[in-house]
Amino acid sequence: MASSADIHVQLCGRLIADWEGRRVESELPGRQGRLLFSFLVLHRLSPVTRDELVEALWPAHAPPAPEAALAALISKLRKVLGAQCVVGRNDVRLVLPETARVDLEVAREAIHRAESALVAKQWPRAWAGSQTALFIARRGFLSGEDAPWAEECRRDVDELHLRALETYGRACLGIGGAENAAAVRVGRELVRMTPYREIAHQLLIEALAATGNPAEALLAYESLRQRLREELGISPGAGLQALHARLLRGS
């Protein structure tokens, strides 16, 4: 087992591996070594079979002797990280101390806490947790890598990014005051990213109303209504229609 000194792995954005004060990502054996390391980090809580590793590293065109190529990569990885960190023969596992930090794990834990706090109307806790998740998830997963498993994880991180934005916007509305303006910015960003996601439009409309712009909120609703009618032949959902009715009564 590695010591309890700081170990930090960044999987979102550019790959970074800080191993007890030593940056080791440049020491990994090429692109395949970086993919192997990232895959083992991602699945570090359970052993991974060699067949799974071969599929992850060479999904389309495996080398003539994939087992030998994989064995060489694992051997080089052990030299960089330490044999005590990369264990197993038939099944391989990356073993890290409990104090190790993997940014994607931090983001997942943070959004879970934030969404739970949101349900409990604990606005400051939801605000803080969503900010942590947002800071990590907005970088995307493993920039520049196009392996199928990386693409799948990238979609998960993109969804986590949306959840973090929505939670942050809702927390801003809950706190109120100057944070309402931040909720408007988040609402506009969400609408640009997901123009058919009604929860994004609802957040924007509520935020506009909270900042004292009911007319602009009504225009945002009308813009969505027209888009849904012209492009999909449907009307906004019941929640949005109820919000629209409340805005009309208020105005």
CATH class of the largest domain: Mainly Alpha
Given the structure, what is the number of helices? Answer: 10
Specify Rg, calculated over alpha carbons: 23 Å
Q: Please report the total strand number as a whole number.
A: 7
CATH fold title of the largest domain: Serine Threonine Protein Phosphatase 5, Tetratricopeptide repeat
Q: Walk across the major sheet and give the strand order.
A: 3-2-1-7
Give the biggest sheet: 4 strands, mixed
Termini gap: 65 Å
Q: Estimate nothing, just give the exact number of structural domains.
A: 2
- What would CATH call the architecture of the largest domain? Alpha Horseshoe
Q: What's the pLDDT, averaged over the residues?
A: 94
Percent of residues in helices? 55-70%
- CATH 4th-level superfamily of the largest domain: Tetratricopeptide repeat domain
From the helix content, strand content and strand pairing, which structural class follows? Answer: alpha+beta
- What portion of residues belong to β-strands? 5-15%
Instruction: Give the overall silhouette.
Output: elongated
Order of helices and strands: EEEHEHHEEEHHHHHHH
Parts with pLDDT < 50 across at least 5 consecutive residues: none
